[in-house]
Specification:
Elements: H1 2-19, H2 31-83, H3 93-116
Region (Disordered): 45-98
Pfam families: HLH (PF00010)
Domain BHLH: 1-45
C-alpha cells in the first residue's frame, strides 16, 4: 500500500516538473523547491491572467464606444445626405471628400478589425 502511494506521488512530482519552468538546474530540485517553484509559477500565471482580463475588458469597452460612434457617424451622414446640406460653410469640397475617404478607408477598416476579430488571450 505504502509502496503504491510513494510511486503515485513520484509520478505526480514528475508530471509537475514537466509543467513548471525550473531553469538550468532542472535535475537537482528537491520536492520542496519544486513545490515552491510551482507556487511561484501559479502566482505568475494568475497575475498574467488578471492583466489579460483587464485588457480584455478595456478593449470591450473601447469596442462598444467605437460601435456607438460608428452608429452616430452613420446617422449624421444619413441626415446630411437627406437634407442636402452635406458641406459646412468652413470646409471645402476637397476637405469633405478627404474626410469621407479617411473615414471609409482607415477608420472603418480599423473598426471592422476590432468588431470581427476581437483579441484573444491565451
Amino acid at each position: 500500500m505504502e509502496k503504491n502511494r510513494r510511486a503515485h506521488l513520484r509520478l505526480c512530482l514528475e508530471r509537475l516538473k514537466s509543467l513548471v519552468p525550473l531553469g538550468p538546474d532542472a535535475n537537482r530540485h528537491t520536492t520542496l523547491s519544486l513545490l515552491m517553484k510551482a507556487k511561484e509559477h501559479i502566482k505568475r500565471l494568475e497575475e498574467s491572467d488578471r492583466k489579460a482580463q483587464h485588457t480584455l475588458e478595456q478593449l470591450q469597452r473601447e469596442r462598444r464606444h467605437l460601435r456607438r460612434r460608428l452608429e452616430q457617424l452613420g446617422v449624421e451622414r444619413t441626415r446630411m445626405d437627406s437634407t442636402g446640406s452635406a458641406h459646412s460653410s468652413d470646409k471645402s469640397d476637397s476637405d469633405q471628400g478627404e474626410l469621407q475617404h479617411r473615414l471609409k478607408c482607415g477608420h472603418l477598416c480599423l473598426l471592422s478589425n476590432i468588431f470581427f476579430h476581437p483579441p484573444t488571450f491565451v
